[in-house]
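Our consortium's second objective concerns turning raw sequence data into structural hypotheses that experimental partners can test. To show how far this objective has progressed, the report includes one record in full. It was chosen at random from the queue rather than selected for favorable results. The single chain below, 186 residues long, was entered without modification.
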Amino acid sequence: MSVYDQSQFPFLGAEQRLIENALKGDKPVLGVCLGSQLLAATLGADVKSGTQKEIGWHPVSLTESAATDALWKGLPSQFTAYHWHADVFDLPQDAVSLAASEMTPCQAFRYGENAYRFLFHMEVTEQIIKNMVVEFEEELKAEAIAAESIIPKIKDYLSKLQATGGEVFGRWVKSLKASWRLYGIP
């Protein structure tokens, strides 16, 4: 599904209102894949279908801004991420670009100090990837992408991607815990 499928999936509008309220309340927001589309659209970006789907293992390059970002600083400036998306969008106004790929210039951004979005997937496991390849086999066929171009590369890229994701998501959790303490939550 895509953010522009609200007539088919009305709950997407409610998701955007939730994100908008969180942003207004200076609450933390983290969007991955569809969540990143929802955050971008909420911030006024036009989410649209890209010229082709970005599926499988593709390099991501961090921007100069990522070098000083709370979640990304000190991490390798390039890594291979797992992708499965068709939609793209421009960087929303006042957002900071954090990562790009050859096919998708806006792979990650930060808005303010506590709203992040990642279009690529760092949360995947080997089983999740294998399930996606099986469940969305028709989509792969339509894009002329062989499962054999995805599954064997798990051993090459997944552990490094999980290490990067572990660091990024770990830093995100630490920032959440810090904000919780402000409200007296242990």
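The partners drew two points from this record. The mean pLDDT is 93. The longest helix spans residues 154-182. Both points have been shared with the crystallography group to help prioritize constructs.
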